[in-house]
Design brief:
Layout (H helix, E strand, L loop, with lengths): L15 E6 L2 E6 L9 E7 L10 E9 L3 E7 L6 E16 L2 E14 L4 E4 L3 E6 L3 H6 L5 E5 L3 E4 L1
């Protein structure tokens, strides 16, 4: 009796994120930054129509083009659900529309407590970036960074 061996090679692309769910690959496009944005946020939710008490994974990604000195990345718990941060932040580098961005990825677990529409506030970031040589020399840019992502409504 002979056995056949099959090999499949998957390659990653820089224009999106591949999610593997139940053996099916789904491509999700990376958020497109506003023109000349130094920082922007995106929020990914596993399920837009969860059940009551179902665990829903949320991933918040902060893209930033300059070196950060300090900052605070936050996601508020919505009314009618509990929200818990899960694991450690991941740091990556990704190219978006030809620009190189540093990326911090943070994961949360959301558990809806009642049925009906659930408004999930968008994540927000406030921080300070290191200024470049010319910024210091000519007084350009105060180094403050702010970014928000849109709110999202889930139907529980």
């Amino acid at each position: 009796m002979s056995a056949a061996r099959f090999t499949r090679r998957l390659t990653a692309t820089l224009i999106g994120v591949w999610l593997l769910l139940c053996g099916v690959a789904q491509a999700q496009q990376t958020a497109s930054p506003p023109a000349n944005a130094t920082a922007f946020l995106e929020m990914e939710v596993d399920d837009d129509a969860p059940y009551v008490q179902q665990s829903v994974g949320i991933v918040v990604r902060l893209y930033y083009a300059s070196q950060l000195l300090s900052g605070e990345l936050g996601l508020d718990a919505p009314d009618g659900a509990s929200l818990q941060r899960v694991g450690q932040d991941r740091s990556l580098v990704r190219e978006v529309n030809g620009r190189r961005f540093n990326l911090v990825e943070r994961r949360y677990l959301l558990i809806p407590e009642r049925s009906g529409p659930l408004l999930l506030p968008g994540p927000r970031f406030e921080g300070r970036a290191a200024g470049g040589f010319f910024d210091e020399m000519f007084g350009g840019g105060n180094g403050r960074l702010r970014a928000t992502a849109p709110d999202r409504t889930l139907q529980v």
